[in-house]
Amino acid sequence: MFDDTLLAEIRARFAHVDTCPLSGPRIFFENAGGALTLNSVVDTSALYAAIPDNQGRDNPASRALVEVIDRARDDVRLFFNATGGAVVVGESGTELLFRLVRDACTGAAPGGVVLGSTVEHPASRGACTRWADETGRAYVQVPHDDATGQVTAEAYAAHVTPETRVATILHTSPVTGMANDLPAIAAAIRAVAPEAFIIVDGIQHASHGRIDLSQADVDGYVISPYKVFSRHGYGVAWASDRLTALRHDTLPGGPARNWEQGTRDTGAYATFSDVVAYFDWLGGRVGGTGEPRQRIEAAGTAIAQHESALTHAMINGTDNLPGLRALPGVGIVGGADNAAREGLVCFWLEHVDSARIVEALNEAGIRTHIRRADHYSGTILKPLGRPDCVRVSLCHYNSLAEVRAFLDAMRGIAAESGA
Fold this sequence. Notes:
Keywords: Lyase, Pyridoxal phosphate. By secondary structure, the protein is an alpha/beta fold.
């Protein structure tokens, strides 16, 4: 785990770490719904919101804005460890998943199927459902493992065929909290359908670091920056050269291979550069040396270790506080012992409504979230026979003291229920 000195430095770089500007002091365990925002992002947003100039003009301010955008595109490639291709900024991560899936489906060879999995968020499932239907293809969903909350490369291999034209992969689930083996799944698809377009939903995974597209042969990777320390209002994607070469919406007579339309928000690009700079800084503080990519990788490793320690304490207990697994009638999505977990625990108590747990935690100053068996989470919860569960999602700026406060509150909630 991070020592107290470094953790204090980390927390000082974020806005509203321990106090909500609307409700007062609180512990923020709702990071999967949207992570905390870097102070540098707040400052950068204000700076660029006030600049009246646009790109493409013959003046110094306009040229400076273009340089900011170009630098940000390089930073995205650095963060993803991707070469070539195009960096695309859109309305949101969900919107970009729909766009990339649409263009893959309309540009792929005729016939065949679209392949996804039951663990996926409706952003990719919805895009595949829509565009498989629009292009006259079947949509096949690889079943995930209910016990582990994951989908495996072996499961994909059992369903991929040479007729697979487009495939989607979820890197990490915002409901189970489990990461899927992206390089292995992509390799399983390529082994049977080498020409398939592979699109990845990396929205939940991004804040935990360790995105490396040099190790995964995919055509698209999408994230939502507000879930990785930036702000709302934009999404970021990388699209391979072969995906970029397909037809997509663009202005007649405009630049070839252009994904983006209209005047861009320079502040969106600039704030993602702030995110990459933060990972670079953190990597240097945990011993990363050499090139920026090496420091970013070091940051990702350190983040994983810190978050793993926090979720282990949450599940198994710490000091004299029992963990979640010790509470009567507890169930933990994906199992209590799961090495694929990334900073997230979804659980329920048999004798306490999940809504009441979230309410009681709010009363104790701890922000969490209920997940219901609806269009967002039903594919995960319905097979478990659960109408809902409580999601506790951590990030690397959270502390062991905050976990202790959560466990103390949960002990009281369980005791009040008579369980």
